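User: Could you write out the 3D structure of this protein bound to adenosine-5'-diphosphate? I've included everything you need below.
Assistant: Certainly. Input first, then the structure.
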Amino acid sequence: MSEATEGGGQGAPDDVAVDADALSATSDVDLSQEYPLQVDDLHKSFGGITAVDGATFQVERGSLTGLIGPNGAGKSTTFNLITGMYDPDSGSVTFNGEDITGLEPHEVANRGLVRTFQIARELKEMTVLENMMLAPKGQVGESLWRSVTPGVRGRVVEQEEELLERAWETLEFFEIDHIAEEYAGNLSGGQRKLLEMARALLTDPDMLLLDEPFAGVNPSLEKRLLEHIHELREQGYTFLLVEHDMDLIMNNCEHVIVLHQGRVLTEGTPAEIKSDEEVIEAYLGGNV
Ligand code: ADP
Ligand code: MG
């Protein structure tokens, strides 16, 4: 079901679109908050199904925090609520001290909070570099080109050049610059994941939400992707990671939040989580 849930985001590259002003504006945000993301008492039902039922947690700046829980626990829905794909029935999401509940996905992205999206079908017929150039430019190119005076056009050209430079730097960082001219549709599963992350990074975020970024990724690329995540974290980026592989979570996250039936069952360090009876119960029905 999680595939269908996330489907709303796939094929919607504009959701990660950030306008040109926002590319520089993210450096103005209030970085004094120790916990940039605060989720408070979120609720979301679909018909009779309660997907998120009072989820409350916060994520520490610069951390790699894991969000785990059995299938159907509400992890993807929580991501969708945080990033504006869905409006919550109640509760709030605060980012860098600002209430962002109910904002549109691009407004959330403009504030520096992004999630990765699978490369949409139409984008598979474009090259890796073209995908990168589309990511953050979004509607800016269109709306500005149509309406602005020539003087401002010069600024847009400058921004395009700057964007191209950053696109190359980001491709180099992820070691996929050698496939810049390759069609996105021809990439391996792992390379596509790297591109998805590169696209998200190009929007100049403070925080990234990763929903099962290692699905379909071979072990050596998984290792590389993890190294990149750690490197970015050391640079100050904050990560919230949904991942099924418990070993991966326990070996890489400093803090783990366990979601069960749409609410936080418990949270703590990997060591604390591993020895938590309730977690064992939730995952394995107590058969331990
Ligand atoms: P997880 O990502 O933890 O596996 P989800 O957030 O995808 O869980 O799903 C939580 C619950 O909400 C599941 O029971 C799922 O079937 C339901 N759900 C999620 N999205 C929708 C939707 N768009 N319509 C109906 N039910 C949904
Ligand atoms: Mg899911």
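The first strand starts at residue 37 and ends at 46.
User: Perfect, thank you.
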